[in-house]
Amino acid sequence: MAVRTISLSLLLSVGLTGCTESRDDHHGPPSHRIDEALTWETRIDAEETDQVINVRPDIVPDREGFLVADRGEQQIRSYSANGSLEFYFGSRGDGPREFRRLQSVVRLPTDEILTLESDGAFKLITADGAELVETFSIEELHRALQMMVLTDSTILVGARLASGLEGPQLHIIDVKRRAVLRSFFNPFGTASSKTAALAAGWVGFDVRNDTVAATFSVSDTLYYFSTEGASLGRLQLPSEQFRVAAGEPDREATQQPASRAEWLASFDLVDRPRFVPQGLLVSYQTVVASRALERNHHLILMQTDGLKLWEVRDTPQLLTIARNRPLFRAPSSEVPNQWQFARILVN
């Protein structure tokens, strides 16, 4: 299959602008087996030491290797392409290169490293991780989870506003001016269950060229925007398996731990969409109430116009897309520092 690069012109050519729902034929084929959808390739054992243990690694491609923001260890790491540890910094604390609520990391076009904490606190670190350059905060941000580089001076951040969940949840930030330039994407109002949105609602997104693809975890809708925040349309996720929260639960269902776990297990949650040469790879999860809220992971491969190419249930966790290939937690691995690339198969 020829490599596709999504852009605004492509979205307009497939007629997304202003669309409100997908066609029935976009649901495509039923679920595939994992060996019909993916072929396993290079495995990476991320190096660990007495001071470096992977607990909750959030991985982003970096040069030829990877940057990791470990939310469990409150630590930033740089790995080579084969998993060798190049440098690390951070721990739980209030020091210059320490964190309390670490969520995300990117490398800026200046080569400096930028970290994000959930309360909107940023730290700018030298390219080698050795020194803190400066700290700054965007006070409007609350429960920030993810960021990506847009231009030489701007980043896109997924976060609630301090004013509440009902406001916009994607924010274009000028890193040099330390200011929010524009905010957009208000998914809360369309959520089928406000309780589910409050309890488990987060925004996931990816950027390719001039286009942003975004999801809201409790919704079965994929949204497209320009990188300036203009709406380009939306599509229903082409899945017959994804379960949306059905209305508001009884009060008792959310009060006790056991009943709350059962309620959370009654609907699915979209992690985020990721651009791949074939279109979009959308990961979603199911809470397993009987196993201490463990998650089962699932994948949808779809074209950018909404046509499903395949759907696979119960996959290893998708970690990132690096050099156009999906990187997963290694199949059957019980430790989070074992990763494996896969090749996407499409008939």
Low-confidence stretches: 1-6, 8-25
Radius of gyration from CA coordinates: 20 Å
What's the overall average pLDDT, rounded? 90
Cα-to-Cα separation, first versus last residue: 9 Å
Helix-strand string: HHEEEEEEEEEEEEEHEEEEHEEEEEEE
What's the short version?
With 347 residues, this protein is mainly beta. It has helices at 8-13, 34-37, 194-200, 257-264, and strands at residues 38-45, 57-62, 65-70, 75-79, 85-89, 102-107, 113-117, 121-125, 132-137, 141-149, 154-161, 170-174, 179-184, 203-208, 211-216, 221-226, 231-236, 268-276, 279-288, 294-302, 308-315, 318-322, 325-329, 338-344.
Secondary structure layout plus pairing:
Layout: H1 8-13, H2 34-37, E1 38-45, E2 57-62, E3 65-70, E4 75-79, E5 85-89, E6 102-107, E7 113-117, E8 121-125, E9 132-137, E10 141-149, E11 154-161, E12 170-174, E13 179-184, H3 194-200, E14 203-208, E15 211-216, E16 221-226, E17 231-236, H4 257-264, E18 268-276, E19 279-288, E20 294-302, E21 308-315, E22 318-322, E23 325-329, E24 338-344
Antiparallel strand pairs: 1-24, 2-3, 3-4, 4-5, 6-7, 7-8, 8-9, 10-11, 11-12, 12-13, 14-15, 15-16, 16-17, 18-19, 19-20, 20-21, 22-23, 23-24
Describe the structure.
With 347 residues, the chain is mainly beta. It has helices spanning 8-13, 34-37, 194-200, 257-264; strands at residues 38-45, 57-62, 65-70, 75-79, 85-89, 102-107, 113-117, 121-125, 132-137, 141-149, 154-161, 170-174, 179-184, 203-208, 211-216, 221-226, 231-236, 268-276, 279-288, 294-302, 308-315, 318-322, 325-329, 338-344. The protein is globular.
